[in-house]
Fold this sequence. Notes:
The chain is 80% helix and 0% strand. It is mainly alpha-helical and 235 residues long. The chain has one domain: Orthogonal Bundle (MetI-like fold), CATH 1.10.3720.10.
Amino acid sequence: MHDLSEALGTAAWLILSLDRDLIEIVSLSLRVSLTAVAVAALIGLPIAGALALSRFFGRTVVLSGLNALMGLPPVVVGLFLYLMFSRSGPLGALGLLFTPTAMIAAQVLLIVPIIAALGRQVIEDLWADLGEQLRSFGARRRQAIGTLLWEGRLALLTVVLAGFGRASAEVGAVMIVGGNIDHVTRVMTTAIALETSKGNLSLAMGLGLVLMTLSLIVNGGAFVLQNAARRRSGG
């Protein structure tokens, strides 16, 4: 119990004193995850819109596959990208292995199915409410998708926040493709695992507190946005 209280006290001091190593790790974590979420949103939301408005043979299979990809094991994604980015891989010449770019790519692959699958349901519900009106205005599919994305922006933002939550808590894939290199690719989740194994519980606890705080902020933001979206649709 004494060790725990001592670790918590030291962790709190590291946060309040803006410890250099802690700030560096948190900053890299946010840069990687926010970039990955932005790229995944640019890819996933148009896919969500296209799937919501399209009817084609095999659509059920595609949707089932997309839902299955939401639970894609991170280590499998990490292994796939490792093979792609390694020197003997097809993208080895790019030199991306063990860089933040490789970590972003891993998180993008994990987040796109989440944004596309959850976003598709949001847009499909909006299409059921607004489809007749948009058709009466002569809106084409691309115009309709753009309108629905705008009308559902609050609900879709909660989807994007769900993607950020997955990205910020991910450890397996980024450990494989990033290598957990100090001052280069060390992020919060990989640093917590490393520092805990080394017995440096104060830094691990400090990073854990920051990660928990970010998680609470993201979940709280998603809750507020969901309520705002419900009030807006109800009004």
